[in-house]
Design goal:
The chain is built from five helices and 13 strands. The strands form three sheets. Strands 5-4-1-6-10-11-12-13 form an eight-stranded mixed beta sheet, sandwiched between helices. Helix 1 packs across helix 5. The longest helix has 15 residues. The chain is α/β, with parallel strands linked by helices and about 220 residues long. The protein is about 25% helix and about 25% strand. A hairpin with a 2-residue loop joins strand 7 and strand 8. The protein has two domains: about 180 residues, Rossmann fold (3-Layer(aba) Sandwich); about 30 residues, no CATH class.
Length: about 220
């Protein structure tokens, strides 16, 4: 199973908080694995890039949508591996203050907020969905690949964040990308293993897809 693309957290009927992830790496991974014979269930964002090699997929919008789909898939189907690329919002809308009054807590306002209004958002931290993947899995031996994107973060701080993914999610591998290093077709990545050692380096999304397959299958 692969998750890909960015979640949207609703403010009102036309506005939302989103990120710039379009799920391109997830589409390439899905294409590669399906092309060599694997059955891949893809959970992708509504406006994400569609893979060229078609197969099973489900479409999510919010992080709650994705959480529900992941729990359903993991608890009812036997997955050998989960590659969790989805860019999930770190924050959720907890309160909306419209013209000085609280009008909605979670889930946004169904109608469009007037452009003549003033409003404020109070956000709360979102849960880390990756931490529940192995706990929810029908397969106790499921392999888990997580992803970590950083932006001008020092190497030591980055490694500490990666260590948290290994600790709390029990991930088998974590792929790290530094946003400032991504240029056109160049998409450098470091693949860290929970067993330690030096990270495996790749330069493009296609190389990354082959490397992940190699690691998950042992060659």
């Amino acid at each position: 199973m692969i998750t890909a693309g960015g979640t949207c957290e609703e403010i009102d009927g036309v506005r939302h908080i989103a990120n710039f992830s379009r799920g391109g790496t997830g589409a390439i991974l899905t294409n590669y694995l399906r092309s060599i014979g694997y059955e891949v269930m893809l959970l992708r964002a509504k406006y994400s890039i569609e893979p060229n090699v078609h197969g099973g997929e489900r479409i999510f919008v919010t992080s709650h949508d994705l959480e529900t789909m992941m729990n359903e898939e993991l608890s009812h189907h036997h997955y050998d591996a989960v590659i969790h690329l989805a860019a999930i919002s770190d924050f959720l809308v907890e309160e909306i203050i419209l013209d000085g009054k609280k009008v909605q807590s979670q889930g946004g306002i169904s109608k469009k907020i007037s452009s003549g209004s003033t409003f404020a958002l109070e956000m709360k931290p979102n849960k880390k969905l990756i931490n529940g993947i192995k706990k929810q899995s029908e397969n106790p031996n499921v392999r888990l690949v997580g992803f970590k994107l950083s932006h001008n973060t020092g190497d030591e701080a980055t490694r500490q964040k990666i260590a948290k993914i290994f600790h709390y999610a029990n991930a088998d591998y974590v792929v790290h990308n530094e946003l400032t290093s991504i240029v056109r077709d160049q998409h450098p990545a470091r693949i860290f293993s929970k067993s330690g050692g030096d990270p495996l380096l790749t330069g493009t999304k296609e190389e990354l897809a082959r490397a992940i397959h190699h690691l998950l299958t042992g060659g």
